[in-house]
Write a structure and sequence with these properties.
With 471 residues, the chain is α/β, with parallel strands linked by helices. 44% of the residues lie in helices and 15% in strands. The strands form three sheets. The protein has a five-stranded parallel β-sheet with strand order 2-3-4-1-5, sandwiched between helices. It has a five-stranded mixed β-sheet with strand order 9-10-11-12-13.
Length: 471
């Protein structure tokens, strides 16, 4: 059963309904469910399918491709001498197949493109000279190396320019989809526990598939991430190595960004990593953004040159916060961590990331999903007798309202103290000074367990709870 992925399946249905050959590119980070989606949608019925193998040279890749061809009906013996011949053999196999709509699925194609292999030019030749001249070929290529997929195929300036008919960038599950997936696996957890699992692992389906229903959520985190041999304990090193041919500079960027929860500027990043300030760095940052690990953003009052780069991948941040510093965590490390100051700090920051990933749910909860809105952040530095202020989520709306969102994680309804009320008043006053009277201000509390009603609660105009993020 496919959980979610409605828009992606609609694209695939449209492809199958066309009366011309179609080229489909499916990409997204490792473990996000790309292969599963394609196989399930097509019911595992392909005219030809092959998966590239990691860390093989061209000869090895061609040997494996030849094996796949013979296993699926090719009469050619031995191995193709190059990728042009391999594509010719595949075309012959497809010509002889009886399927009315000939679906070809090439998985992990970036791995097939070994150095000096001519794989891309051979693929271009196959599509342009053979497949596109027919009406019944559906070529689906898939890869976790998002940067390769975008550069070599989707944004190709060569023979594949403007050839892709359907681009499917598969993202992580939302909270709602994780809940549906958990229910399908008979994980009967509370929404709080589902949210905390998401805050640690993100919405990567493979990670969730490893959950053991005989264990509680905290016990699962211990088993997967902190026990010797835990399935996800070494995932961090495999993750970046699988995505990038030369992962070391990417890891250096990630490690530098992991030192700041709010993000750092490009210049600070260069100082921390020692990388050169050039186009290569720009491409690496773009690659990390395309893969969902990093986001680039500006405060409302910042120039683009002062933009911040922020690490937003939940698993990576969890690794740097808890796994990397504890090489010998001991039994039940995570279960014992719950409620401690480090845990409380982490939940606060992780909940903010959770909210930012579910902006559409917040807009819907505010009743403004149909209003054009810009999501921003804002800060004001300390100025003489004025306190500094920072707002991590500010929704600038076309109806003349700015929704100032405070994000708070707690088990019980959030209690606004007198001192916190003063902090909120200062934020509103500083923002008003900068924005003038052209916009109305609305103070929104996004609180996991809602708002405790007391004498300070009247400052809040609207409350969004965890339930809304699951909607």
């Amino acid at each position: 059963m496919i959980i979610g992925r409605k828009a992606e399946m609609q694209k695939l249905k449209k492809v199958m309904a066309e009366d011309t050959s179609q080229f489909v590119a499916v990409y997204g980070r490792r473990r996000v469910g790309k292969t599963f989606l394609v196989r399930e949608f097509f019911d595992y019925k392909f005219a030809f399918t092959h998966t590239g193998v990691a860390n093989l040279n061209t000869r090895g890749q061609l040997r494996q491709f030849g094996k796949s061809l013979r296993a699926q009906g090719s009469k050619h013996q031995g191995n193709p001498k190059d990728w042009y011949e391999a594509m010719d053999w595949m075309a012959e196999l497809l010509t002889d197949s009886s399927e009315e709509r000939k679906v070809v699925f090439l998985d992990e194609v970036p791995w097939m493109d070994a150095p000096r292999s001519s794989f891309v030019s051979a693929l271009e030749h196959f599509w342009n000279s053979w497949a596109s001249a027919r009406r019944n070929v559906v070529l689906v290529i898939c890869g976790s190396a998002t940067s390769w997929m975008i550069e070599k195929v989707i944004n190709s300036h060569g023979g594949l320019y403007n050839r892709v008919n359907a681009k499917i960038h598969l993202h992580q599950f939302s909270l709602k989809e994780c809940q549906q997936y958990a229910e399908a696996r008979n994980l009967h957890w509370s929404r709080r526990h589902l949210a905390e699992a998401y805050m640690a692992l993100g919405g990567v389906p493979y990670y969730w598939s490893l959950m053991d229903r005989s264990l509680s959520m905290p016990q699962n985190i211990d088993a997967l991430l902190f026990q010797d041999g835990g399935s996800l304990r070494e995932e961090y090193h495999q993750l970046y190595a699988s995505l990038f041919t030369n992962p070391d500079p990417y890891v250096a960027i990630v490690e530098a960004l992991a030192t700041s929860s709010q993000g750092i500027t490009r210049q600070k990043l260069i100082k921390k990593t020692g990388l050169l300030d050039n186009g290569k760095l720009s491409r690496m940052l773009q690659d990390l953004a395309h893969s969902g690990f990093v986001r680039k953003y500006c405060h409302l009052n910042q120039k683009s040159k002062d933009a911040l780069y922020q690490l937003v991948d939940n698993y990576t941040l969890f690794y740097h916060t808890f796994i990397k510093p504890e090489p010998n965590p001991g039994k039940n490390y995570w279960t014992a961590m719950i409620g401690r100051p480090q845990y409380n700090t982490w939940t606060g920051l992780a909940f903010e990331r959770l909210c930012l990933r579910h902006i559409d749910n917040i807009l819907d909860g505010l009743g403004i999903s149909g209003i054009v809105s810009n999501v921003r952040s804002w800060h004001a530095v300390r100025d003489q007798d004025k306190k500094g202020a920072q707002i991590d989520l500010l929704i600038d709306r076309a109806d003349g309202v700015i929704s100032v969102c405070e994000m708070k994680y707690s088990v019980a309804p959030y209690d606004i103290t007198p001192s916190y009320r003063e902090t909120l008043i200062n934020k509103l006053n500083r923002l008003r000074e900068e924005m003038g009277e052209n916009k109305s201000l609305q103070l929104v509390l996004v609180a996991s367990a809602g708002l405790k009603q007391n004498e300070n609660a009247d400052i809040i105009d609207h409350v969004i709870t965890l339930d809304q993020l699951f909607s």
